[in-house]
């Protein structure tokens, strides 16, 4: 497919998704601005990201450090970048140095990476970095994430032991064939909400479930 056609499809898809988000928010009695849509742009060209940006979207997600480090300097500084998934310790400093407008890391799955992020953020003297704790709800060995039974303790560690990180909630990546059905997806979300409730009871107020 030619690049201009692909870019046009991306903007059309974005508008369709945002409409569905507004409709779902209305049905659940929430404001649509309480829901953040992250456009995952991994492997997509800078020209396509700019097209979506020009359509009004500001929140983009990447999975690979080298890719986000190459793209971010070519795009407007008001983009809110999210790094999604497992982050290796040796990639933390290059990521934070290259992407000053990194808004969130979605994938803290152990104390070691939390501690390393905390030290690097402190060392470069940037504002506290928002992070989500990744929970492995599918039980798949191929997926990163803390076991559900350990997510509250990891969240406590981030909240109380990492002053340069801002614990912002939980995220999970479901099993594709399982979580693609509405009923199974509800099971996963209810599972996360259970841990969300435990955290709030421990005064670990969470902002995001993803």
Automatic annotation (TrEMBL):
Give GO MF terms, alphabetically. Answer: pyridoxal phosphate binding
SUPFAM superfamilies tied to this protein: PLP-binding barrel
- Known cofactor(s): pyridoxal 5'-phosphate
List, alphabetically, the InterPro entries matched.
Ala_racemase_N, PLP-binding_barrel, PyrdxlP_homeostasis
Glycosyltransferase: is it a keyword of this entry?
no
According to the UniProt entry, where is the signal peptide?
A: none
Using the record for this protein, list the coiled-coil segments as residue ranges, or answer none. Answer: none
- At the top level, the lineage of the source is Eukaryota
Keyword Calcium among record annotations = no
UniProt modified residues of type N6-(pyridoxal phosphate)lysine:
42
Question: Which keywords belong to this entry?
Answer: Pyridoxal phosphate
- Taken from the record, one Pfam family name reads Ala_racemase_N
Q: Which PROSITE patterns match?
A: UPF0001 (PS01211)
Q: Which residues form the Alanine racemase N-terminal domain?
A: 22-173
Tell me the protein family, please. Belongs to the pyridoxal phosphate-binding protein YggS/PROSC family.
Q: What is this protein called?
A: Alanine racemase N-terminal domain-containing protein
Originating organism: Vitis rotundifolia
